[in-house]
Amino acid sequence: MPSRSRAQWPPSRRNNSRHGAFVKRSLRPREFRTNYQGLHIPRLNKERFMNEAEPLRFIRSHTDIPVPTVYCDFQEDEAYYLITEYVEGVGMSALSEDEKATSAGHPGLVIPPYRALRLADVDAWSLRPADQEEYVFCHNDLSQQNVIVNPETLQINAVIDGQYAGFYPPRFEWPFFNRLGPSVAIHGEIDDASDILEFLTLQVRITLQRDAVRIG
């Protein structure tokens, strides 16, 4: 039987829980670490936290999907803070296979799914406005560790860690929760990261062309 230690959001020394709330924040520049390649600056360090707050508010207001309540988010001392409800439970990855079978962004900010972002060198993205209903809300990181489950009732308590969430084509939402592992293709799975990156790159070009026409 897998360990059933209480689950939180992905482990980080900058995350902690207190008084029924969960606090996470971006690293401050003075906390960036140096490795053999030099200073490591986290990609979209603040923006990922900004993007996570708005989708959580949207989901709570417009759906019945269980997600933590956002208490507040703000910037202070060169760090961006996100304070939410602390959700008790274990990650879906801690359940047995039988138990798994039983269990039931910031405005204008575009952050691609991690599986595509890791292939890109740029951090500024855009999506053209849709004339038809071609975009749906996607979490984009639905791995088992981000699905918090009551270990006794096997009910889903919350879906967490929506740093890459937003409105995208339906194909962006890959069901990573169907197996153990990260939100990237593994073990012979079809890797769609390059296709997603190509789509997003095209969107940036279309947006730039549209803006150029307006200015002209």
From TrEMBL:
The residues covered by the Aminoglycoside phosphotransferase domain are: 117-172
User: Per its UniProt record, what InterPro entries does this chain match?
Assistant: AGP_Transferase (IPR051678), Aminoglycoside_PTrfase (IPR002575), Kinase-like_dom_sf (IPR011009)
Matches recorded under SUPFAM superfamilies: Protein kinase-like (PK-like)
* Pfam families, sorted: APH
Q: Where is this region: Disordered?
A: 1-23
Q: What is this protein called?
A: Aminoglycoside phosphotransferase domain-containing protein
**Where does this protein come from, organism-wise?**
Verticillium alfalfae (strain VaMs.102 / ATCC MYA-4576 / FGSC 10136)
